[in-house]
Task: structure prediction
Amino acid sequence: MLPYLLRRTLSLFFVLFGLAILIFVIARIVPGDPARIALGPLATAQQVAELRADMGLDQPFLAQLGTYLAGLVQGDLGTSLLTSRPVLDDILAALPATVELALFTILLQISLSIPLGVLAAVYRNTWVDTVTRVVSLIGVVTPGFVLAIILQLLASYTVTIFPVTGRIDPSLGFAADVTGLLLVDGLIAGRLDVVGDALRHLILPSLSLAAAGIGQVMRITRAAMIEVAGRDFVEAARAYGIPERVVTFRYMLRVAAVAPLTILGLEFASLIGNAFIVEFVFSWPGIASYGVRTILQKDLNAVIGVVLVSGLFFVVANLIIDILLGFLDPRHRLQLGARD
Amino acid sequence: MTPPSSLSDANGHRTLTARQMAWYRFSRNPAALIGAAIVVSVVIAALFAPWLAPSPESAGSLVDFRNRHSPPDWDNWMGTDNVGRDIFSRVLFGYQVSLGMVIGVLGVAVPFGVLLGLVAGYFGGWVETVIMRFTDVMLALPPLAMALAITAVLSPNIVNAMIAITLLWWTWHTRLIYRIVKAQMNEDYVEAAKVAGASHTHILFQELLPNCVAAVAVKVSLDAGFVILFGAALSFLGLGAQPPTPDLGTMVSTGSEYLPEFWWQALMPGLAILYAILGFNLLGDGLRDMLDVEL
Result:
């Protein structure tokens, strides 16, 4: 296990390094002068030249790459052209909102998809099965931004208790400065009104973000449960007179859960990437909103920073899932060992 | 691979060829048939948009302020947008853009990905290591963030959006074909071809490739839906097709500025995207059951 972990961690750095170089190269080979774009068409040639020198753009390409990577190792992502602040500060300021959204979304996915999948498998080929399968199909095929708009419409016409933009009502005058997560900081400060308001703001964005994963995981849970239902150990457990509920949840689900958990892990890993659209629609002040704004402004340092952070999240989450699966399923652990 | 085409066995019972069996499975699967029907309707809408559209001039930058923001009715089935264009007509032309994107992306990414998968699986050794490690790195990149970054640095338009999606898409086909070829390499027919002195090209394209076709067909059908989704998402963020191109994602994005009063402007193109994705998904699932492949 240990050598495997070491190798995975090494390859993680390799992937991030490759990602950094790839995106830097793409950003630098494109036509157009970043300094000129930043200053706009009215700037004088001298101003542009000064900014070029300032940004290191007058250096040879490899020197630029070297400087960039050296800065990266020290956690320096450069300065944002849009906000004139260090990119890292901007990202750290926006990150808690995204993390809160991602955590709430994965919670929603786990608590809805697996029970519904089990339900569909237990009552398979009945109307319960049909309904859950249709719901899961709709979840899979509805683009996040379309669902977001449908939910916003519902929220403005029928269920008006859910706000359609932002993270918290500013009139509550609450600043989350412990963890940055409103739900946690609200609880710490004993402000239940803040927790309630943050929850109401969270529901619609996280539902839009969660739907595709819920549909997919539901399908896989159902298939895995049906497959497990045919195994001998299930028959044996029933023969011992173990109650059906216990057989379903303690015996079958434990074996069947590996596949859905793998998919949930992948889903969680791509949440920050997928959050771009949902954050945009709901004006959620997270890293994806920042990413879209800086992308549209061609603020290259910030764009590279955002892609690197979502890449980091993606590979680290994948690594953690692999380790967790090892604990859940000894065969997975053996396979990992066998590969070394 | 194809069994003999006789229609009756020794006892005179009617038997079905593999192809008939497959079609039987497909035709008894209502979801697959619905999917096929949806896909056909989308293709027809795209091909014949200029003739089917009630108002073909709405596809461009027509301005008809007297009719702006008019809700869905008998004349404009999906209502009109902020400058009075017929949304239904724009949706039909929007399918042209979407399907064009699917063909552009998959037309490059699939042959490229399949070729790399074939080569990696067949030759093995350092060729395999180089190709598959590179594929792994590409698969580790967060797709949407990467596509956003690429289109942003290349300047946002529909061709660059397609380039970005293509750059990220081939990897899935490489991995799929690699896995199939690896499994096939132990089969007798490959060994026989080698012993008979067949060239690498012959074995790759005449022996191995035909065994990958079913899996690729299923994957392409499922992919088509996701390419539409991806393209629409990029356009929605303003990084794909630019106005006045009648792109579905752009239409949702423009329409969402007029929510909630003029709800149809965002909702109708949104549902049109959903409809197309649903069709390709159902069709892909049906094909998977019919051809009995695992992806």
